[in-house]
Amino acid sequence: MPEKLTPQKLAPLAALGGIVADVRAIGTIRIAENPDVAMASLAARTGRGADVAAAIARLTGLTLPGPGGMARSGGWAAFWTGPDQWMVTAPFATHEEIAGELTAATDGAASVTEQTDGWVRFEVTGARAADLFERLCNVDIRAMKEGSATRTQIEHLGSFLLCHRAGTDFSVMTLRSAARSMMHALDVAARSLG
Asked: Which end of the chain has fewer beta carbons closer than 10 Å to its terminal beta carbon, N or C?
């Protein structure tokens, strides 16, 4: 007689493999894995940019940003990734179905793709955060202002760098499959600050 299978509860894991997010304090730098963000890419279909902007404003209160920009409203945020393209984020707890929400709101005017499990996001904060990023990428980090976003390479990993507070408060996003490599790069750079 076959063995009776019992249901097992599955627990989600953070990108670095832990049940809880990895948080490190190194000198004045804090590096925190942030699994609590829902993400979806949003691309306006040809000639529908104004329709998409209006729909997103109604749904989220956001004004979709232009090149190098990031916008926030309530828990929602969006940053520019290309012409008529954005990454839209919101708290995972309240917007687990973010792609469905955006698809319904834009009503055929945009192509929306779920991105939550494809990316890892790290929050990097501290008085010397700008010094850390100067060691890791070719972005003029000291020129980044609050609400700016850029695409860059960090340790050969395609990444997005978001500035929440000039010089001290940043988010880094890269592919989830490279989570350990990114954490290693951030950790080593933070330790190099002395």
From this structure: N
* pLDDT on residue 194: 81
Neighbours of 150 (CB within 10 A): 20
Distant-in-sequence, close-in-space partners of 18: CB < 8 Å, separation ≥ 6: 33
47 CB-near residues (< 8 Å, 6+ apart): none
172: left (phi over 0), alpha (psi -120 to 50) or beta: beta
> Token pair of 146, please?
């609050």
CB atoms under 10 Å from CB of 145, counted, come to: 11
DSSP bridge pairs for 174: 120, 159
Rg (CA), the chain: 18
pLDDT in tens, 83-116: 999 999 999 999 999 999 999 999 999 999 999 9
- Secondary structure tally for the chain: helices H, strands E: 4, 11
pTM for this entry: 0.91
C-alpha–C-alpha distance, residues 147 and 181, integer Å: 26
The SS3 assignment for 181 reads: helix
